[in-house]
Amino acid sequence: MINEERILNLFMNMVRIGSPSLEEKNMAVFLRGLMEQKGYEIHEDCAGDFCGGNTGNLVVRIPGTCKGTPIAFSAHMDCVPPCMGVEPVVADGRVCSAGETVLGGDDKAGIAMMIEAMAHIEEEGIAHPDVYFIFSICEEAGMHGAKNLDSSLLPLKDVVILDASGVPGCVVVEAPAKAVIRMVFKGKASHAGIVPEAGICAIRIAAEAVSAMKLLRIDEKTTANLGKIEGGGATNIVTDTVTLTAEARSSRDELLQDQIEHMRSCCAAAAEKFGGEYVFESAISYPSLHVPDDSPMLRRIELCCNRLGLEFRCIPTGGGSDANVLYGRGYSAVTLGIGMTKVHTCDEYIELKSLTDCAALVAEIIKG
User: Fold this and answer.
1) In whole angstroms, what is the distance from residue 359 CA to residue 5 CA?
2) From residue 299, how far is each of 203, 259, 364 by CA, in Å?
3) How far apart are CA 260 and CA 278, in angstroms?
4) Half-sphere exposure of 226 (CA within 13 A, CB side)
5) Which residue range is the domain that position 208 belongs to?
6) Residues 6 or more apart from 235 whose CB is under 8 A from it?
7) Is 0.85 topped by the overall pTM?
8) Residue where a domain stops, chosen among 251, 271, 286
9) The 241-250 sheet, strands edge to edge
10) Are the C-beta atoms of residues 348 and 105 closer than 8 Å to each other?
11) Same-domain pairing of 248 and 112
């Protein structure tokens, strides 16, 4: 049986450790201490050096007690703000924050589940192959930990990521690629009171472009959103430069490219209309994720769910995770729903039952 008291105490201790993206060192120190107590093999890579973080990813190897294919479980150490000074509260069968911060179940619940599952396996003396834990950095700010993971520390194919909404038993099999987009509109400065007709207003160019763009929900697979607009100054000067930052996502690469080109063409038409100029830049931040129907890992998880009485469901998601990056790097990556709810808000919570059910599922996956 999963030890509910132990996993709850571990989870609550971890969420009290502030660990915003790029500042996960205190969390890494805590986890290193736990892993050292258990005598596991611990490595820290240089991922933090590549993205300005204060620690790297931790990769932990737990030597197998029998022959078998090694498997890895992954969860990220960072949390979205506000995540400093978290005070967890237990009430009505769930854990939430006192209300001034996020809880941090995204993704410290996943970490707690991995650790408790392994503790259960060892207490019961259950034979297992080599098991790896990945405690990654900077997932919330661009998956920089996964992007810069030292793959030489991970000599295997199968990675199970614990980092999705949905009750235990849900498995994410489709997730979109994301493009980051920067649009710069250039007009011509002029005195707005004396010779406004000599100016070209970059704000008007931007407004024209945006008004023509398809945004938010584009279709079943595709979304696009404007995140920030910057530019302008004094009201007596015709604004000559405006910058917009945006994103587009789709689980179908061709649809993503169509959306990017649509947004580019809107910028071009607006600049031409007002006699200005534009710069349009886009880059794929991470690839789409598609787990094939005949994936052996999916079948393995389905059998484990059946043994535990959990409903097995394959689901798509509109968000990205370390799974997208690891999948793109050639790993067989699947993401488990871990029951975290209202993530990225101060109303975030997780059911105690989700903590124990998912830990039990991880233990069952380890058994094979």
Assistant:
1) 13
2) 54, 35, 13
3) 15
4) 15
5) 177-286
6) 192
7) yes
8) 286
9) 216-219, 222-231, 241-250, 177-186, 277-286
10) yes
11) no
> d(Cα 368, Cα 365) in Å, to the nearest integer?
5
Beta-bridge partner residues of 336: 162, 171
How does pLDDT run across 196-224, given as a tens digit for each residue? 999 999 999 999 999 999 999 999 999 99
Rounded Cα distance, 360 and 365, in Å: 9
Say whether both 209 and 73 belong to one domain.
no
Residue 175 in 3-state DSSP?
A: strand
Active site residues: 78, 139
Q: Single out the residue in 286, 304, 336 at which a domain terminates.
A: 286
- E strand spans, the chain: 41-44, 58-62, 71-76, 88-91, 94-97, 131-136, 158-164, 170-175, 177-186, 216-219, 222-231, 241-250, 277-286, 289-290, 313-316, 332-337, 349-351
Q: Rounded to whole angstroms, how far apart are CA atoms 352 and 13? A: 15
Token pair in block for residue 150? 């030292």
Q: Is 313 exposed, middle or buried (0-12, 13-18, 19+ CB in 10 A)?
A: middle
| Residue 317, strand partner residues | none
Cβ-in-10-Å burial (0-12, 13-18, 19+) of 136 comes to buried
**Helix axis angle, 4-15 to 105-123, nearest 10°:** 140
Give the C-alpha distances (Å, rounded to integers) separating 79 from 58, 102, 163, 235, 333: 16, 8, 12, 40, 21
* pLDDT score, position 368: 77
262 and 168 share one domain: no
Reported as a pLDDT band with limits 50, 70 and 90, residue 162 is very high
